[in-house]
Task: inverse folding
């Protein structure tokens, strides 16, 4: 099943892009680097022990909100997310004292959505004689992990029904990890605004009624969280590449795979869809550079029936796509058997399932996902060594 009730999907978008020296790989909705620069210059006028307080006092000055700018393509991505059916709200660690200025500025920029701010307290003295600081000193990841369930509850109350899925988008890995710790199966983590717009809005099941080969392709697309586009786009191409391992030769290129899908020509079979698996093999070209060429190519229709199974010729012609040879006649049972038994087996045995899991995991969790992949590789290597020793 690929359909979902889109009105039951909530996207919680971290408002500001986190930047280190003005640069950021993953972009959210708002670029506040100019406001940060002004605050930094202001803080440099003070003694070192006072600079942090001076920086945040200026950084959170409501009058400086006008120096913020919308990230490139943010408007387009926000519109696309909503066109796909998600409700968008913003989450920001900006203090509540910036709420009026921020909301007015967002309205002027035509990206106004509901915003949840961090409460910095009233400053008034409480019964204990201490000023009310609200959540000011609560670490941002911990605050976000606490706020997300509260936001979900509030939106559900407004909708009058439960949310089916929640997309949580944050460019800071530590905050994504904190929200992951909530262990809410409805929450899907995203690392940028573009990541929300392009990846799945829900988790998809694998069809138990299709042959093993197509079931394997579905699993790979699920792990990349790109199943919707894999099943519905006019054309889709997803590459699964083994992650770079620290200390590994950077010139070394390992076998990777590319999975494709496309709709049949409208005049031929308007409801028919095809899927293809390509095994990419590293080979040096005439310039002694490594290039990935197709060594194996298997295609099936939407029922999982094999329609093409080709391999590259050996030798110099290996790098020529048009030199792929039909290994089996698609109508022969051997073609289906090869795809379902051998190719489907390679997804697991050659590690492409784990590679896809690591590839997506590293986008979301970074080093911890790489460490999990390395542990898996080490465990597999130990299994191989044990098998070679005859189980001793």
Result:
């Amino acid at each position: 099943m690929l359909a979902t009730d889109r009105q039951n999907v909530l996207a919680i978008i971290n408002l500001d892009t986190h930047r280190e020296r003005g640069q950021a790989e993953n972009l959210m909705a708002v670029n506040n680097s100019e406001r940060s620069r002004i605050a930094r210059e202001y803080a440099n006028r003070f003694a070192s022990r006072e600079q942090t307080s001076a920086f945040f006092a200026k950084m959170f000055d409501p009058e400086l909100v006008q120096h913020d700018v919308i990230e490139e393509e943010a408007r387009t991505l926000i519109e696309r997310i909503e066109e796909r059916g998600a409700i968008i709200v913003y989450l920001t660690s900006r203090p509540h004292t910036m709420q009026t200025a921020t909301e007015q500025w967002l309205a002027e920029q035509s990206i106004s959505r509901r915003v949840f701010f961090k409460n910095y307290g009233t400053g008034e003295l409480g019964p204990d004689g201490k000023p009310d600081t609200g959540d000011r000193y609560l670490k941002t990841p911990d605050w976000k992990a606490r706020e997300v369930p509260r936001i979900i509850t509030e939106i559900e109350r407004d909708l009058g029904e439960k949310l089916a899925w929640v997309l949580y988008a944050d460019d800071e890995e530590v905050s994504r990890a904190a929200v992951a710790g909530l262990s809410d199966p409805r929450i899907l983590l995203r690392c940028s605004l573009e990541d929300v717009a392009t990846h799945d809005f829900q988790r998809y099941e694998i069809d138990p009624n299709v042959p093993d080969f197509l079931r394997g392709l579905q699993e790979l697309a699920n792990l990349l969280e790109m199943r919707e586009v894999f099943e519905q786009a006019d054309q889709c191409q997803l590459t699964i590449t083994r992650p770079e391992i620290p200390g590994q030769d950077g010139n070394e290129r390992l076998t990777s795979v590319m999975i494709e899908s496309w709709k049949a020509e409208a005049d031929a079979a308007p409801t028919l869809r095809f899927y293809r698996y390509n095994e990419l093999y590293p080979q040096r070209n005439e310039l002694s550079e490594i290039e990935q060429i197709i060594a194996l190519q298997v295609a099936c229709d939407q029922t999982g029936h094999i329609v093409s199974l080709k391999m590259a010729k050996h030798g110099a012609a290996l790098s020529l796509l048009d030199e792929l040879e039909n290994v089996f006649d698609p109508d022969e049972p051997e073609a289906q058997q090869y795809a379902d038994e051998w190719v489907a087996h390679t997804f697991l045995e050659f590690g492409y399932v784990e590679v896809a899991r690591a590839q997506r995991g590293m986008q979301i969790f970074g080093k911890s996902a790489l460490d999990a992949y390395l542990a898996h590789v080490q465990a597999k290597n130990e299994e191989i060594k044990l098998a070679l020793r005859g189980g001793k």
The chain has a mean pLDDT of 89. DSSP finds twelve helices and 13 strands in the chain.
